[in-house]
Amino acid sequence: MTLVLLVGGARSGKSTLALERAARAGSPVVFVATGEAGDEEMAARIELHRQERPPEWTTVEEPVELGRALASAPGHATVVVDCLSLWVANVLEHAPVEDLAVADARTAAARAGLTVAVTNEVGLGIVPDNELARRYRDVLGRVNAIWAEAADEAYFVVAGRALRLE
After folding, report:
1. For residue 31, what are the contacts with CB-CB under 8 A and spacing of at least 6?
2. Which candidate in 49, 68, 106, 135 is catalytic?
3. How far is CA 113 from the centre of its chain?
4. What is the pTM of this model?
5. Residue 94 annotated as catalytic
6. C-alpha distance across the termini of the chain, in Å
7. Quick check: 115 and 70 in contact, CB under 8 A?
8. pLDDT digits over 42-80, tens only?
9. DSSP class of 28
């Protein structure tokens, strides 16, 4: 069992690395998509991501119940979670996010198969100018730390390159 966390900025290459790692695993792949098409731009991004995945992979669209999606994946399958940052945005106002993150990271780490989780690092830029954005940044930072602690491997991704975090 291995949990791998890929954390980095937007468009840093995290998802590409996650897809490559999953393809190399040699087992069936379940892709857990947490994004929702709230507008045309997001719908186009989701469609582009769908086209990047092999057609034999199973896609589970689950914007909120991440733990349930992880638990329902076949034990031997590789699971890709893309991404924790959208999941946090989806549940931020409706649930105890950090408690869910602890439980879901434990579920991911306990799986027999490989799990690769993707998340954004949003704390490296300017301080957001509103309370909700600051809260999101802070909660996502704690969620990322929770998943990194549970992970067997964690990488910071910049320009398509992964730097191992110790």
Report:
1. 22, 53, 57, 58, 59, 60, 79, 80, 82
2. 49
3. 16
4. 0.95
5. no
6. 19
7. yes
8. 899 889 888 889 999 999 999 999 999 999 999 999 999
9. -
